[in-house]
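Design job #97: recover the sequence.
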């Protein structure tokens, strides 16, 4: 199951993009089934939650892409749980983005193997440090190639048993970094830097998808392996998107309609086109059905198996309502209509007669608009029944005794700010210019006892000397910042200026041991003294269980 990040409907040559070369994706679509109307969420973590559980993302507790809003509730049953229970080896290789801390981590969600990263995006794509099963691993090469290498190793090791291999690539998500040969090719076609980089990243994915398919052929597994390829939302940039309205973040067609191809030689007829509307929530029940897994134990599903559509049986297939939702805006898609709700305004489009969504029919067809709006309101009340409050950070599991509380998972107070505007992944706390400032994280300590506390910081020479403390309830550990550490950002070969923060190398400040009580706990970092203009910049607090 291969997923790409921020690749839209129009980012496929066979979807009418004459500038972009994707021969492997085109061949994959021709060799099996191409879904003509396949829908996801407007942004990445919600789509991932839906495809992993077969449920609309608000039900799973996922409401955003950072600040722990991306973590799925622990009671959710994932597609990896389903396949592992059926005897499959399970592996995830790439961008997870549904919870960084065990048991929200892939190793706690049904995957035997994990290689990649858990955040919403990564800072650098060349010679970076990723994670293998909870441990950092320095890598060499371009990230999409490296992820593919890990997936290939898993497939080879599992060739004699059933396996479920999930490959969620992080490209073409920003930052726009790609090897020269790909970027230069599209620059030579007259494209601007951002589009040339995105297309280069997509063609590199295409090459790596080819490597995955070649490995199945080499091992004689082609006829025994279902291959699914799709994308998580619309394009992250204004580029060709088949004249669809909207891009990433939008609940219009262009923000949520994406490519989806499924190949199974001998079982799915080449050239099959699936015309009924389908969605990410359908993948779990469909793949389980195709694999012969009867009555998988899951929570109640929103998705349905479309296995019979893949086998050519479209008789009496009912019309459906598929909902897309993000940040108080949503849409309902039927086979003919798209109803959109945003800023309390209701819009209605006939997607058959008006695929570009140029003519709002809400006033001309009020009964249809009211019916779909009523369905949307009922859906929203249902999926929000349990709320979507972010969970606390779990601390103390033996499976992962070291927990890193990242700045983007915490809360700044008293003038402290995030370096970036949104507090996205990889961000840090800065503008700490007063002892009134502090930052905190909400924890759930599952094992009481001593924890070694380390701050990951930077501090200029003129600001050395601040005394800081870390508190949990009435317990405290403190220390002084005695060494300056203020490096420039890591050089980043971006082809176009990024909107995320840049990578930095952080220094450890070991404060000592803190006894954490079991249960809900607030961990707070304070400044006791500030001899300079600022206390420090803070990237994370590491908590290492000692017993």
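Job complete. Output follows.
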């Amino acid at each position: 199951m291969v997923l790409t990040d921020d690749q839209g409907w129009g980012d496929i040559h066979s979807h009418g993009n004459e500038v972009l070369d994707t021969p492997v994706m085109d061949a994959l679509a021709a060799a099996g089934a191409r879904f003509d109307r396949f829908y996801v969420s407007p942004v990445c973590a919600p789509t991932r939650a839906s495809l992993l559980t077969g449920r609309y993302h608000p039900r799973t507790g996922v409401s955003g892409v950072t600040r722990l809003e991306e973590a799925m509730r622990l009671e959710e049953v994932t597609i990896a749980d389903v396949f592992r229970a059926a005897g499959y080896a399970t592996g995830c290789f790439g961008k997870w983005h549904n919870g960084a801390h065990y048991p929200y981590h892939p190793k706690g969600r049904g995957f035997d193997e994990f290689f990649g990263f858990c955040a919403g995006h990564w800072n650098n794509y060349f010679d970076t440090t990723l994670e293998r099963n909870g441990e950092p691993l320095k890598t060499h090469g371009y990230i999409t190639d490296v992820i593919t290498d890990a997936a290939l190793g898993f497939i080879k090791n599992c060739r004699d048993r059933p396996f479920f291999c999930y490959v969620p690539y992080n490209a073409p998500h920003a930052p726009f970094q790609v090897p020269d040969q790909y970027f230069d090719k599209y620059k030579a076609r007259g494209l601007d830097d951002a589009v040339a980089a995105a297309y280069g990243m997509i063609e590199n994915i295409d090459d790596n998808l080819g490597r995955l398919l070649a490995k199945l052929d080499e091992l004689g597994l082609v006829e025994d392996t279902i291959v699914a390829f799709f994308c998580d939302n619309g394009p992250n940039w204004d580029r060709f998107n088949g004249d669809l309205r909207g891009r990433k973040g939008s609940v219009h067609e262009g923000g949520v309609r994406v490519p989806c191809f499924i190949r199974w030689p001998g079982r799915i007829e080449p050239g099959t086109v699936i015309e009924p509307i389908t969605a990410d929530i359908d993948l779990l029940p469909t793949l389980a059905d195709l694999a012969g897994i009867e009555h998988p134990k899951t929570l109640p599903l929103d998705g349905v198996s479309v296995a019979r559509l893949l086998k050519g049986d479209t008789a009496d297939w009912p019309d459906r309502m598929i909902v897309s939702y993000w940040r108080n805006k949503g849409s309902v898609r039927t086979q003919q209509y798209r109803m959109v709700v945003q800023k309390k305004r209701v819009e209605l489009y006939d997607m058959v007669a008006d695929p570009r969504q140029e003519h709002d029919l809400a006033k001309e067809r009020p009964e249809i608009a009211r019916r779909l709006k009523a369905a949307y309101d009922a859906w929203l009340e249902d999926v929000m029944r349990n709320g979507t409050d972010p969970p606390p950070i779990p601390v103390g599991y033996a499976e992962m005794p070291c927990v890193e509380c990242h700045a983007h998972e915490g809360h700044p107070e008293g003038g402290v700010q995030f370096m970036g505007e949104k507090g996205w992944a990889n961000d840090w706390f800065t503008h700490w210019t007063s002892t009134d400032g502090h930052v905190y994280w909400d924890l759930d300590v599952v094992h009481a006892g001593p924890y070694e506390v380390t701050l990951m910081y930077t501090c200029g020479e003129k600001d050395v000397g601040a005394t800081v403390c870390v508190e949990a309830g009435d317990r405290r550990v403190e220390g002084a910042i005695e060494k300056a550490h203020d490096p420039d950002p890591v050089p980043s070969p971006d082809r176009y200026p990024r909107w995320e923060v840049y990578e930095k190398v952080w220094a450890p400040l070991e404060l000592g041991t803190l006894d954490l009580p079991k249960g809900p706990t607030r961990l707070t970092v304070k400044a006791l003294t500030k001899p300079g203009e600022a206390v420090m910049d803070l990237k994370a607090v590491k908590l290492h269980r000692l017993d």
